[in-house]
Amino acid sequence: MSPRTPPPPSAPASGRSGRGARGGYTVGDARRRSIIEVAVKHFADRGYHAASMARIAEEVGITQPGVLHHFRTKEQLMLAVLEHRDALASEREFARRPRSAVEALRTLVRLVEFNGSQPGLLRMFTTLAGEAADPGHPAHAYFTGRYALVLGLIEESLRGGSESGELRGGIDHGALAKEIAAVMDGLQIQWCLRPDSVDMTGQFRQYADRLIRSITPDGRGLDEEPPAPAPDSPAPAALWREQAGTGRSAVEERAGSRRADILLAALEVFAERGFRGAPLAAVAERAGLSQQGLLHYFPSKERLLVGMLDLRERIDSLRILAEGGTSPRLEHIVQLAEYNATRPGVLQAFTVLAAESVTEGHPARAYFVERYARVRELAGAALRAELGDTLPGGLTPAEGAALLLAVQDGAQLQWLLDPAAVSLPALVEAFARLLGKRERPRAVTGRDPVSPPPL
User: Fold this and answer.
1) Which molecular-function annotation in GO is an example for this chain (predicted)?
2) Per residue, what are the HEC states of the chain?
């Protein structure tokens, strides 16, 4: 998603370089690279908590102490893997600083295209980023620092564009940077789950082109040269909460039952460790039961996961809306973001599980594939009902729905990593208004980071 970003100062060093006197790679360098390449696959397939240093060592063909000779801890290996991923992107697309805001967006489009050519690395990054929403995850500080730096670089490019006259004035550069990052991350999750369900590169290119046209003074697009530089409150949600209250009441009514206690305990433990890294014993302990007592209600870990996913569906606002016979509208999707911001624990658990489910063989993969397809269809119906078969900028309702869902997912991840820096409802609301507007507004405020060009 971004240029190379070093780990936070608190992160341990990833080890000695192992270079010889003449600067060539030694056997130690080759071994380190082999370990990193194998670790990429294991972190992508199982996440951080469930990945095993012993299995990584076995696949590399060395002993576990051999791995520990190069990487003293699993955390250190994970950080080296993340550095490796960022270095590949940096060498390919960020060898030099973009000269303009338009060029910065072009660079991000090329980066999305590159990410699509590296599915293993992208799945690993998506999995670890989702897991890192838990403040106790060893990569939490890395991703928090990374997002702060990346958002700052995007914001700097946009601000420079406004100051030079390349972009028009009145833009909230910080809010727009968050939106761009959210679209990238959200599309990645959908693509990792099912690559044939969304054209990740095409969708982001269309978004970037439409965005640039909306903020350049003469409406020039992504592939056109920019002009020469010039000389020296969230919408009310009372109705939504009233509708969603039914779901919360249902949960509260069952809160005293052992089954509900176990499900809520699983929600917390899965949020912290993901599905594969969460032992049943930890869930049982959190619920105040023995492991045997837990198995009386849920005979396997997979059955517990299914029960927890069903719990989420029972309190999910979009599901209530659909089953209640109410036609979905853009305002309902915005209100969903407001509602989600009131339940960070649930949001964290499902961000972790959605990211983890992109891995092969994950028991929740089918659930999330089906759920994303259903929510895209629901959001597409909302857009078609309000705006017709062609949205502002030429998007189809299906394309707009994929982008809207991407913004929502990406904003959720940013918000979980740093709630003080990101307003989840405001970011989703601003993008929803962008999709719904046909006229060009006079100015852009902090609540409305971009505006579409006139049709």
Assistant:
1) DNA-binding transcription factor activity
2) CCCCCCCCCCCCCCCCCCECCCCCECHHHHHHHHHHHHHHHHHHHHHHHHCCHHHHHHHHCCCHHHHHHHCCCHHHHHHHHHHHHHHHHHHHHCCCCCCCHHHHHHHHHHHHHHHHCCHHHHHHHHHHHHHCCCCCCCCHHHHHHHHHHHHHHHHHHHHHHHHHCCCCCCCCHHHHHHHHHHHHHHHHHHHHHCHHHCCHHHHHHHHHHHHHHHHCCCCCCCCCCCCCCCCCCCCCCHHHHHHHHHHHHHHHHCCCCHHHHHHHHHHHHHHHHCCCCCCHHHHHHHHCCCHHHHHHHCCCHHHHHHHHHHHHHHHCHHHHHHHCCCCCCHHHHHHHHHHHCCCHHHHHHHHHHHHHCCCCCCCCHHHHHHHHHHHHHHHHHHHHHHHCCCCHHHCCHHHHHHHHHHHHHHHHHHHHHCCCCCCHHHHHHHHHHHHHCCCCCCCCCCCCCCCCCCC
